Amino acid sequence: MNVTPLVDVVLVLLIIFMVVIPQMQAGASVSIPGAANPDQKSDPRYPPITLSVTSEGGLFLEKQPVDRQALVRLLRAGHTSSPSSKLILKGDRDAPYGLLRALFKECQQVGFPGVSLQVGDLRKEGA
User: Fold this and answer.
1) Which candidate in 6, 46, 60, 106 could, as Cys together with 52 as Cys, close a disulfide (CB 3.0–4.6 Å)?
2) Which residues have CB under 8 Å from 95's CB, separation 6+?
3) Closest by alpha carbon to 52, among 92, 106, 99, 105?
4) How confident is the model at residue 69 (pLDDT cuts 50, 70, 90)?
5) Is residue 87 part of a domain?
């Protein structure tokens, strides 16, 4: 039995998965700032809700663009459907600080059990 065609198919599938999986991350593509001591991983039974802020101030709840007026309503609906899930605020390092601070306060007022800022690891960035 010749296994060469089987190996070729498996390698092609591997390459496809290597390209597709990174595109499935939640949120918008942002360049996040670093942290020297990152938190431990969260509980996998309660996946976090991700709110992303781009450098221009655009808002994305998970991967869906959202305007500022509808944000609190959508956050309340997400918290109601999954009250044990935490919220991750993922802000671009060039995003307006005042906007991030106001969003952090609004997210805390919704009642999530935890609101976290997603940052990169400074040790990996070389800083």
Assistant:
1) 60
2) 30, 53, 54, 55, 57
3) 92
4) confident
5) yes
Q: What domain range includes position 121?
A: 26-125
Query: HSE on the CB side for 34, CA within 13 Å?
Result: 8
Q: Identify which of 86, 91, 85, 87 has the alpha carbon closest to the alpha carbon of residue 119.
A: 91
**CA distances from residue 93 to 3, 54, 98 in whole angstroms, order as listed:** 49, 9, 12
* pTM metric for this prediction: 0.61
Region of 62 on the Ramachandran plot (φ > 0 left; ψ -120 to 50 alpha; else beta): left
pLDDT at residue number 12: 92
CATH code for the domain of 88:
3.30.420.270
Q: Is the pLDDT of residue 25 over 70?
A: no
